[in-house]
Amino acid sequence: MHERSLLSRPIPSRRPCLTAVLRMAGLRPTRQRVALAELLFSGAHRHVSAEQLLGEADAAKVNVSLATVYNTLHQFRTAGLLREVAIDASRSYFDTDTSDHHHFYLEDEQRVIDIPASGIVIQNLPEPPYGTTITHVDVVVRVRKTQ
Ligand SMILES: [Zn+2]
C-alpha cells in the first residue's frame, strides 16, 4: 500500500456497527433503516419526534417519507432500540436512552428532557390485572414557563 492510498482512506463509519445492531434486533438493515439509525444513534442520547427526524434526514440528503420515518421509529421501538414517550394522542417522542427514567415535558418549547429514575419515587402501585406484570412506569411531568 503506498502513501496516497493511506491518505485517501475514508474515515471509519459507524455503518458496519449499526448494521450489526439492526441485525441483532431482528431488523433487516435496509439502506433507509441504516441511514435513520445513523442519524438517531450517532451522538448523545436524545428525544426526537418523527417530524424532527424527517427534517434531519432531509438535511442529510436521505430520501425518506414521513410514513417511512414513522414506520422505522415504531420498528426500532418494538425491537427495543428506542423508547416512546407519548405526550398525547398526536405527539410522541422517541428516546434513544431505553433505560428506566422519567421526563419533563416543556410545553412552551414542545421539548422533552430527562428526569433520572431516582428523581421520582413511585409507591403503592396497584396490583396489575390478573395474568399481567408491570413492565415499567412512565411519568411525564408537564411544565410551562412561570408567568
Ligand atoms: Zn429520556
Automatic annotation (TrEMBL):
CDD domains named among the record's database cross-references = Fur_like
Its main subcellular localisation, reduced to a broad class, is: cytoplasm
**One Gene Ontology cellular component annotation?**
cytoplasm
Pfam families with a match to the protein in the record: FUR
Query: Is Transcription tagged as a keyword?
Result: yes
- UniProtKB keywords: Cytoplasm, DNA-binding, Iron, Metal-binding, Repressor, Transcription, Transcription regulation, Zinc
InterPro entries linked: FUR (IPR002481), WH-like_DNA-bd_sf (IPR036388), WH_DNA-bd_sf (IPR036390)
Q: Name one GO biological process term.
A: regulation of secondary metabolite biosynthetic process
- Asked whether the keyword Ribonucleoprotein is assigned, the reply is no
Localization: Cytoplasm
> Molecular function (GO) terms listed?
DNA-binding transcription factor activity; transcription cis-regulatory region binding; zinc ion binding
> According to its UniProt record, which protein family does this protein belong to?
Belongs to the Fur family.
The entry describes its oligomerization and partners as: Homodimer.
- Which PANTHER family does the record associate with it? FERRIC UPTAKE REGULATION PROTEIN, ZINC UPTAKE REGULATION PROTEIN
Mind telling me what this protein is named? Ferric uptake regulation protein
Q: Which species expresses this protein natively?
A: Devosia nanyangense
Q: Gene name on record?
A: fur
